[in-house]
Design goal:
The chain has about 180 residues and is α/β, with parallel strands linked by helices. About 30% of the residues lie in helices and about 25% in strands.
Length: about 180
């Protein structure tokens, strides 16, 4: 995996193979950040990266100068890897080891962009809990967006607050406002 743009553009990151992850492809990341470039000045935003895995999305935001980045994952190995990588690149990424749903139920942390990359095998009920908890607990800043990455075989357009989706290969980014 590599960092697509910003201060650390081109840097390769090799995650341990034993991590239980499916990193966002470089093509999909590039497309996502092309959309976000038109919506935000990165140095003005806060980001919440849910189901952070290897931290790939957090690194992209850090490379572009996001002011506050919080990565949440329940796997200790993932959190350890994100901390190690962030330290090596001198990136300011806060990590929280937690089940994402428990975190969302209790959190008061607001963000401009909340990115969630849950397991593709989630049920529709599990997927629906993500926007439900975020909007119910008012975790998005004004004009903020929630982006959920999921398989092209999953349709989230019937969920409350759904705005639009963009497919990239086998992945889809669904946007909620």
């Amino acid at each position: 995996m590599r960092i697509i743009s910003g201060t650390f553009k081109g840097r390769r990151i090799n995650a341990p193979k034993k991590l239980p992850v499916r990193p966002t492809t470089d093509m999909a990341k590039e497309a996502l950040f092309n959309i976000l470039n038109n919506l935000y000045y990165f140095d003005d935003i806060s980001v919440l990266d849910l189901f952070a895995g290897t931290g790939s999305i957090s690194y992209e935001f850090a490379s572009r100068g996001a002011k506050q980045i919080t990565a949440v994952d329940q796997d200790f190995g993932c959190i350890k890897f994100i901390n190690k990588t962030a330290e090596a690149f001198k990136m300011d990424i806060q990590t929280i080891k937690s089940d994402v749903f428990k975190f969302l139920e209790k959190s008061k942390l607001k963000a401009n962009i909340i990115f969630a990359d849950p397991p593709y095998a989630f049920t529709e009920e599990q997927f629906s809990r993500i926007p439900m908890l975020i909007f119910q607990n008012n975790l998005l800043e004004d004009n903020g967006i929630l982006i959920i990455e999921h398989s092209k075989h999953t349709n989230l357009s019937n969920l409350k607050h759904f705005s639009y989706s963009k497919p990239y290969g086998g992945s889809v980014f669904s946007f909620f406002e």
